[in-house]
Specification:
This protein is an alpha+beta fold. The protein has four domains: 2-95, no CATH class; 122-292, no CATH class; 306-443, no CATH class; 459-532, Beta Barrel (OB fold (Dihydrolipoamide Acetyltransferase, E2P)), CATH 2.40.50. The protein has 15 helices and 18 strands. The strands form four sheets. It has an eight-stranded antiparallel β-sheet with strand order 11-10-9-8-7-6-13-12. Strands 16-15-14-17-18 form a five-stranded antiparallel β-sheet. Strands 1-2-3 form a three-stranded antiparallel β-sheet, sandwiched between helices. Helix 4 (122-138) packs parallel to helix 6 (249-265) and helix 13 (400-419) runs antiparallel to helix 14. The longest helix has 34 residues, at 425-458. Mean pLDDT is 84; it is low at 187-195 and 295-304.
């Protein structure tokens, strides 16, 4: 029996758990999967797996099994053995790449991606990674933009198909390659509108820095000799009628041939058709015939060269779609939709006079979404404080989970923009600090607001109309001091008696929308609203 376990927290999310790990066991001779386990950490996942496998009929052999595992797991496996298997021999071995690929498929399944019935072989993956490396080293996006579709006829093992390829990266956003079925490439280019996903049958390779990808995807690239010297690392996926999917064996073959075709198209023979032949894994034949056809239906406008807020947000979401579970992607999309609504509604307040003139003209013409379509990515970084510090608190009835996610997602967005040179490092550093603070503080502030509201509702009735002006305050007040069960506000207003749970959450410098009444020298909460960290 061969056993593997990994932390998969960066790929799979289980409600309420900060960490997730998976383990699985297979028969190394037959390749049959014997069982799997998912838990909060590798030790718990292994314990779950081994308990299940030992309880199965096949695990009732009176002889203790011989358990193979990677060297780094040997001690952990030994400590997780069920009572019936305490005498089992644990042997450290280095798993074959195909076994690791099988584990990748399990992670993909847990992340919500469909799994093909014909998994690619190690030889299939090796050829695809080599071709992807050649693609990255050639950097064809410096010459080809998404205005120039690569029309290709592909032959794989004697079967032909017509596809349209798009080289991504000329605009400096998402680098990679998309292969569309037939002539289905959208008029606006690939990856332009994440709410309307690519047509089923689309095959995609995106290229990102290693730190921006889930660990198991980077590990796969390294297993297939992806050089450390290359900053960009490939991620592959297919698109079906039911969403994102991992590549099948034929998908890998077609994408390998198509990448070779894209490089041939970038080789200078753009006026005439270019053809080539390849031998793929298993001796399968591959062939391509390629021609570039620049789109004549695209308006030649300078606006296309501007990385607008809309274009950046669309590209960011598309970049996230393939590596996030469906549930997590929906959260990302919700936060980005809220950011877009905030910018379109309030971003105009910080425009220069010429910018405001352009915005007002578009708005007056009926374009209520003009802000995100007109202005560049600098407006995103400038609005992080407004979005997280005001809009999410005052304008959105958000759960603590969404509040926490808003800081996390905005932080990811800012990092993504900075990596692509869309905002400066200094601007990104400040915006990321705000995002980190928001991810930590917004849920706490929401809980504090709820406790203060309940305190006002359950506290003594204060007859506001009977109070002197000096004994009643209704304003946004900053917390100046915190002690257990007591708060003070600016101008030495206080102490205000609150539950200890409230004082545990409160922080000096936070602002509370609050009404206070003083009766017989004691301040009481009359009303409480939002808390702004």
């Amino acid at each position: 029996m061969l056993v593997l376990a990994r932390d998969i927290s960066d790929s799979v999310h289980v409600g309420g758990q900060e960490t997730v790990a998976a383990a699985f066991a297979l028969d190394p001779e037959t390749g049959l999967i014997l069982g799997s386990g998912v838990a909060r950490d590798p030790a718990a996942a292994l314990s779950d797996l081994l308990a299940n496998v030992s309880a199965a009929p096949a695990g009732k052999d009176p002889r203790p099994p011989r358990i193979l595992c990677p060297p780094e797991l040997a001690r952990l496996v030994q400590g997780c053995l069920p009572a019936d298997w305490r005498m089992a021999e644990v042997v450290a071995v280095q798993p074959d790449v195909s076994v690791e690929d099988l584990f990748d498929s399990l992670v993909g399944h847990l992340a919500g991606r469909q799994q093909p019935s014909d998994l690619p072989s190690a030889e299939d993956w090796s050829m695809l990674f080599r071709q992807a490396q050649a693609f990255v080293e050639a950097a064809p996006w410096r010459q080809l933009s998404d205005d120039v579709p690569v029309h290709v006829d592909l032959w794989l093992a004697g079967k032909s198909t017509h596809r349209v390829g798009i080289v991504l990266g000329n605009a400096g956003i998402t680098h990679g390659f998309a292969l569309y079925p037939g002539d289905a490439a959208p008029p606006g280019g690939p990856m332009r509108n994440p709410p309307n996903p690519p047509p089923p049958g689309t095959l995609v390779m995106t290229l990102d820095p290693a730190h921006a990808l889930p660990g198991h995807m980077v590990a796969k690239a390294r297993r297939y000799q992806w050089p450390d010297s290359l900053v960009l690392v490939p991620l592959f996926f297919a698109w079906t009628t039911d969403g994102a999917a991992d590549l099948s064996g034929d998908d890998v073959g077609l994408l390998t041939i198509a990448l070779a075709a894209a490089l041939a198209a970038d080789g200078g023979q753009r006026a005439a058709q270019t053809a080539g032949d390849m031998i793929l894994s298993g001796g399968r034949s591959g062939r391509y015939q390629v021609q570039l056809r620049p789109r004549s239906d695209r308006p030649d406008t300078s606006q296309r060269d501007v990385l607008t807020v809309d274009r950046a947000l669309e590209a960011f979401l598309q970049d996230c779609r393939s590596r996030l579970s469906a549930r997590t992607f929906r959260t990302y999309a919700s936060v980005i939709d809220l950011l877009r609504a905030c910018l379109n509604s309030y971003g105009y307040q910080y425009l220069s006079e010429p910018e405001d003139d352009a915005f007002q003209a578009a708005y007056a013409a009926g374009d209520e979404q003009a802000f995100c379509g007109l202005f560049g990515t600098d407006k995103i970084a400038e609005s992080v404080g407004e979005f997280l510090g005001y809009f999410m608190i005052r304008k959105v009835a958000a759960s603590e989970e969404l509040l926490r996610a808003s800081g996390t997602v905005i932080g990811k967005l800012i990092s993504w923009l900075a990596e692509r040179g869309a905002i400066s490092p200094d601007v990104a550093h400040e915006a990321q600090r705000r995002a980190r603070d928001a991810a930590r503080d917004l849920p706490r502030a929401a809980r504090l607001a709820s406790i203060l509201f309940d305190t006002a509702e359950s506290g003594p009735t204060v007859r506001v109309d009977a109070l002197e002006d000096a004994d009643y305050i209704e304003d946004d007040l900053m917390i100046s001091r915190v002690e257990p069960g007591r708060l003070w506000f600016e101008d030495e207003v206080g102490p205000v008696k609150v539950p200890k749970a409230a004082s545990d959450l409160a922080r000096p410098g936070w602002t509370v929308s609050i009404a206070l009444g003083r009766v017989r020298g004691l301040w009481h909460i009359v009303q409480a609203g939002s808390v702004y960290p």
